[in-house]
Amino acid sequence: MSNSNLSIDRITKTYGDMTALHPLSVEIPHGSYVVLLGPSGSGKTTLLSILGGFVPPTSGSIMVAGQDITQMPPARRRTTTVFQDYALFPNMNVTANVRFGLDARKVPAAEATKRVDRVLRLVGLHGYGERSIAALSGGQRQRVALARALAVEPQILLLDEPLGALDLQLRRQMQDELKRIQTQSGRTFIHVTHDQEEALALADTVAVMNHGRMEDFGPPERLYSRPASRFCATFLGESNLVEGALRKVSTDRVQIDTPFGPLLATGQGSEGTHTTACIRPERLRIATSGAETLQNLRVIETVFQGTFVRVRVANERGDQLLAKLPPEQAPALQEVVSLSYDPLHASLIPA
Ligand code: ADP
Ligand code: MG
Fold first, then answer.
1. CA–CA dist 349, 207 (Å, integer)
2. Which pLDDT tens digit goes with each residue over 68-88?
3. What is the position in ligand 1's atom list of the atom closest to the CA of 36?
4. Which atom of ligand 1 is nearest to the CA of 194?
5. Atom 7 in ligand 1: which residue has the minimum CA distance?
6. Cβ < 6 Å from ligand 1: which residues?
7. Mutation test of ligand 1: which of 45, 48, 84, 195 has the most ligand atoms closer than 8 Å to its C-beta?
8. Would you tell me which CATH number, out of the four given (2.40.10.410, 3.40.30.10, 2.40.50.140, 3.40.630.30), belongs to the domain 238-348?
9. Would the pTM of this model clear 0.85, i.e. be above it?
């Protein structure tokens, strides 16, 4: 076993009769960049706080490298938390802030000086040691908070909406930095956000949280192409969810009788059941050949978005589909079109 694999085993959290976390089990390999993605109130902070030791779980256990740390106080864990408001000491300079945890842990002075220097370089703040916190920009404060957390050399860094206080441009820039720092440090990062773009930019593994449940866990490419639930299909990117009765075609291919006509989809399910397939809007194209098509669709809205055109179409009943088409394929309003798709990109949502 590698040195800090994290295993979460049937963790739950209830507050009175309110369930913040339903039984949740997951294995996180050392060196992962995991993003906990979900809407407000889905249980992200609760899970992170349980990992950090700030909130006791109602049941279940947390193991790091095979050791049960469920009852261990935060200071003794090999985790460090970066809070959304950074929680820096405003009356101390940058070095004193970064050094704080090292002195508290009785790291020898020479070693502490070396570490502070190293982490300040890592976060791009070399030479800023004497600056006061008040004199720093939001992005610089964020880096100080990160440096302070990394200085204690935690095996697992817990970040709760760490970029939430930054404006959009700085946020995108800090995402690249965070990813670089995580790769260079080789530590496990567990990062909470409700921003799906941030999740895709950073994660090698995304955990989608909804109503206290982890609805999906895996590489972003897989979560995007084969979402585990209707919620995941709509929270991570846009989706067309098409429903109907399932007919088996082969082991891994089904036909669904949808309001748009028969749809070939990839996945497994039982004959006759009501089912849902997900097709991403950018996977639909204006049909030009005899490929799989959805026919007789009237264009009811087109919006030019630069690199693509958002096109909304509807069948005679008014059921709608969204397509993101290359600008040169954009149809005219009220035109009746057929849309083609590849059954590989029409993914059955597991029942
Ligand atoms: P998120 O971070 O995803 O926004 P939280 O983990 O903070 O969600 O909260 C999950 C749910 O648990 C919410 O419904 C919240 O109101 C509830 N909750 C969190 N902390 C407490 C608490 N100390 N007492 C009661 N309910 C709480
Ligand atoms: Mg939260």
1. 17
2. 999 999 988 989 998 877 789
3. 3
4. 3
5. 45
6. 15, 18, 20, 38, 40-46
7. 45
8. 2.40.50.140
9. yes
